[in-house]
Amino acid sequence: MYVYDPHYNKMRSAEVLDCHVLVIGSGGAGVRAAIEASGYGETILVSKTLAGKGGCTTMAEGGYNAVLREEDSCGIHFEDTMKGGAYLNDPELVSILVAEAPQRINDLLAWGAVFDVTDSCDVAQRPFGGQTFPRTCYAGDRTGHEMMMTLIERLASTNVEIENEVTALDLVREGERVVGALCLDGKGEVMVIRADATVLATGGGTQIYDISTNSSSGTGDGFAIGYRAGAELIDMEMVQFHPTGAVYPYDARGRLITEAVRGEGGILRNAAGERFMSRYDPERMELSTRDVVSRAIATEILEGRGTPHGGVFLDVTHLPRQQVEEKLPVMLEQFLKFGVDIREEPMEVAPTAHHVMGGLRITPDAGTTVPGLFACGEVTGGVHGANRLGGNALADTQVFGKRAGESAGRSPRRDSRIDPKAIEAQEERLAAFLDGHVPPSTVIRSLKTAMWEGAGIFRTEAGLNKTLGVISHLSSLRLLARTRENLAGCCTAQNMLLSASLVVRGAILRKESRGAHMRKDVVQTWDARNSPYGHTYQSLDRSGIETAVRS
Question: pTM for this structure?
């Protein structure tokens, strides 16, 4: 296919690939979707990084929630998830999650995944925050890595074509239907991928914040790509700040300290040595939900009871050394590299941006509001409501990754075409970057600061509007790519700006405090279960907040 390149003022050939299913994203959800789709026809997996290496699944330390014991039940897991999500979750999606999570972990075990086991050789489980039963399965504190390696090995046994280090630019529509995507290879050349069905599995986007646990690829690309294609997004204001990110040493700043530390008995103390969670949730203490613990830590710091480095202490020195060595080997190794022996001294921690609960609105079969487009994993909204329980994300990747891959695979084959005008428009967008003025790194730095200060754990309408103004200004700047190899960085910056605006606009719409969303300037008389508000929603065509009273 030949298209006009305005920068070079000539026609150029654009590489065109055809497939039945296109999967964009190579974390746990994307790889699982590709595995399932491959049974239905030609499947292409596009990875921004190297498949299995980028994304958040491989970084996930804590565990996978599944009902595996007679004393537990799907009903209990359902209620824990709904309560933890401040009842903003889609009940149908939660029902699917809790019912199918045990089946999906059994798939992983059958494919060779090695989880910790009890003396009786049952899969071991430990407590995580917000659970009434310890149902978090784990592989030490390397759970996500073990899952990812298992999935990649399984993927290798399929005929899936993997396109590594390729950046998705935008989806392409024929009428109302998505028929593929335009991508950018490592040399800055446009790739055209035509597909009967497309799955977005691009993960989250907390890299829009100054301090984040996400990998460098967590830039909200899927939110932006889906939005520009006309998909509806819900609850984008619901950004989870993990309570325990490292604050010291500086080189470890923001690095995730897994909830498994508290699950194994870790204690939170302020600078005065107080076990302060008794003030905020005396019943659950350190195993309260992440939103409660994050606000508690932030409050301790803001009120002057923080450590010299701006955090609080997370202490496991009272635990047996063998327990720390066997159950938390990554944490031990990680801090030893920085000269801190967690067996002998506490860690210094503070909240860090971790997970976006909102995202593309999906149906039980993982369909979006746009025909031909499916989605799974953190890029979707509805499963986790206003606050995600630790251990539910890894389960989500497998339950809805499988559903998305199967649904996309069952899509009928179509004789679709890619309009050359869409490619030409993309070439014009890219050419503008070569004549720009501001490096994307400068814009991203300013965005991160603005989001941390104005759309963080505590929010006000004035602060949110100020942040939206900063985003608007940054969006007006002409981004500079010095070579075609740098074009992807400009596209990423634009996606981050759009994702950030969706978060802020959602936060302005939701005039209540709920789950991870705390409005300091709103007085409310209701609790989460009786809130007059439902989902916020944003698309090219409409935006607002549902106001029907929940039953």
Answer: 0.92
